[in-house]
Design brief:
four-stranded antiparallel β-sheet; 14 helices; 18 strands; globular; binds ligand BES; binds manganese (II) ion
Amino acid sequence: MSGLEGALAHARARKDEHLAEFRAFVQIPSISTLAAHQEDMHRAAAWLEGQLKALGLPDVRILPTQGHPVVYGASEPVPGAPTVLVYGHYDVQPVDPLNEWESDPFGAEIRGDYIYGRGVSDMKAQILAQIKAMDAVAAQGGIPVNLKYLIEGEEEIGSPHLGAFIEAHKDLLACDVVLNCDGGIHSKDVPAITYSLRGLAYFELEIETAKKDLHSGLFGGSVRNPLHVIAEVVAGLHDGSGKVTVPGFYDKVRPLDEEERELLARLPYSDEHWCEMAGVRALHGEAGYTTVERVGARPTLEANGLWGGFIGEGAKTVLPARAYAKISARLVPDQDARDVKGQLEAYLARVVPADVTWRLHEHSTGPGAVMSRDSIFMESARKSLAEVFGQEPLFKREGGSIPVVGLLQEALGVDSVMLGFELPDDGIHGPNERHYVPNYFRGIETYIRYLYHVAGSAQ
Ligand code: BES
Ligand code: MN
């Protein structure tokens, strides 16, 4: 039996254990953004440390960052073999709205072909599938490449400390390719490889018109209302054709060439299906682009939250002193988050009246990325997916963001191969997040095959 066949057999004989461990991982509520889950973050990191140690890796460490720790691991060196850095994140998003869940978000309940829980699809299934794949490979007499792990705990809050961590550990992270397990495929039986991601720049805006809240009868009509100011600021971000009005916003956007537009137009996609998945009656976006282009290759600038004044039960006649907005941009190459911040500041300086104070606070920023579609590492991913799914993968641009991809391109000059199994209708970040269980097992097989293809020793 070849190493590949031996590894596949090894994994297939352990499906029950692999599923049980997946459930145990999901049951750790590792919500990175909530301080109350600090302890759970450490539990999740320690759980993964145990998994990497069980793989037999000689070097496994929990490394501190300015925020949640990174789990790092490295296999026995194999001189002359390629170095593959596996990326994953162990943090998950909050669970609200809790009352819309049909089962405990951290219960990892299995119903039919799906497992339900926060983080099942984004992305605990995949990082564990990759580890289980390596367990099967290691059992065939050792891992034939230089394998490293970078598993962070802050992806879901924009990886605010990962850039500094990478800068400080360039030698430790040096590699030929990144295997990023946080990607998605097209639909449950149709594989895809993501070759582009959008970046994200996230801000909070505060508008202050007075020192304190005022009686809306005594003062109303004589002073400015910050809610009206912020509503105008937000409404003014776009024109009637869906274009962002902020000067300079599109200046550095890398245009799509005709060849790629044609490639994207061939993806099996329909506006009706997109409406259905989104639960909307009509689509809306930047004029002149298709939905696939709008999501994959065009930037956005959107309000994610807007509040101020009285929002409790009943009525209160108040003229608030302050209003707030969370505003974020999805960035595409070659936009720079710092430029966008400067453009937003210039826009605010122009549109906010001079007697009103505004403050723009930056939450996190991360660049977008486009990867080469024809490296040997991409070719290995294509082959692995085709073998497991019995059909050729599509190549797609992802609208979501994974900051590490651009950060590693910038710091180490390496591309990421996105190999993950999230689905557009898995409800990631929403209630009843789910993962298609058969794809957890297909994932293990794909990662096994990928490793042998990269090592050049698949038989
Ligand atoms: N895994 C997702 C991104 C994703 C989703 C990739 C579906 C491929 C298919 C990732 O964890 C995510 O949600 N990222 C955040 C990042 C942000 C907080 C910087 C996002 O895009 O909002
Ligand atoms: Mn996510």
